[in-house]
């Protein structure tokens, strides 16, 4: 039997000073296509998850992470893929975030996140983001 492989993914919940969160829409042809997501991507060999987070947010959003803290860890089995989402809360960054890969993107208030279709694995993230700001360890 071949051991299954779980993809380790660094995911950034970027919070701006107004308490809004940066989201973008996955391209149709990708896994979980057309769903909304938080920026991020696979941790590559030789990287730790924080390095992967910084690299992905620079590549995808053109920002430099200044302050980030682990938020939650989600292991989820899709029918076609197993993922480990290593989710970080990014509360300080330099640059103006913009999606760099042609994806639709926007800033949304935390309570508005429930109106967007996200991959099922994200449900617990969205739920936790409804907590009071002091619970998030961030302003807003
Ligand atoms: N980036 C991101 N990926 C997510 C989220 N939720 C979720 O289930 N995933 C899953 O995590 C996996 C890896 O994400 P990704 O496609 O962004 O990886 P990547 O940037 O390295 O892409 P690539 O190397 O395929 O171009 C995908 O299977 C995706 O469906 C999310 O909120 N953000
Ligand atoms: Mg990605």
Write the layout of secondary structure elements.
Elements: E1 6-14, E2 20-25, E3 36-37, E4 40-42, H1 49-61, E5 64-78, E6 81-94, E7 105-109, H2 123-128, H3 133-136
Parallel strand pairs: 1-6
Antiparallel strand pairs: 1-4, 2-3, 2-7, 5-6
8-OXO-guanosine-5'-triphosphate binds next to strand 1, strand 4 and strand 6.
Report on this structure.
- By secondary structure, the chain is α+β, with helices and mostly antiparallel strands.
- It has one domain: Nucleoside Triphosphate Pyrophosphohydrolase, CATH 3.90.79.
- It has helices at residues 49-61, 123-128, 133-136, and strands at residues 6-14, 20-25, 36-37, 40-42, 64-78, 81-94, 105-109.
- The strands form 2 sheets. It has a 4-stranded mixed beta sheet, covered by helices on one side. The protein has a 3-stranded antiparallel beta sheet with strand order 3-2-7, with no helix packed on it.
- The longest helix is centred in the middle third of the chain and has 13 residues, at 49-61.
- The relative contact order is 0.26.
- Residues 7, 9, 11, 30-32, 37-38, 40-42, 81, 83, 85, 119, 121-122 line the site of 8-OXO-guanosine-5'-triphosphate (8GT).
- It catalyses: 8-oxo-GTP + H2O = 8-oxo-GMP + diphosphate + H(+); 8-oxo-dGTP + H2O = 8-oxo-dGMP + diphosphate + H(+).
């Amino acid at each position: 039997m071949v051991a299954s492989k779980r993809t380790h993914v660094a995911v950034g919940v970027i919070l701006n000073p107004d308490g809004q969160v940066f989201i973008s829409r996955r391209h149709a042809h990708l896994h979980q296509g057309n769903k909304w997501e938080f920026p991020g991507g696979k941790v590559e060999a030789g990287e730790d998850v924080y390095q992967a987070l910084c690299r992905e947010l620079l590549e995808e959003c053109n920002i430099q992470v200044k302050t980030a803290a682990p938020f939650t860890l989600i292991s989820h089995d899709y029918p076609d893929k197993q993922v480990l989402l290593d989710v970080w809360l990014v509360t300080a960054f330099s640059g103006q975030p913009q999606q760099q890969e042609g994806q639709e993107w926007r800033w949304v208030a935390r309570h508005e996140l429930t109106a967007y279709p996200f991959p099922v694995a994200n449900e617990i993230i969205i739920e936790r983001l409804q907590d009071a700001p002091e619970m998030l360890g961030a302003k807003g």
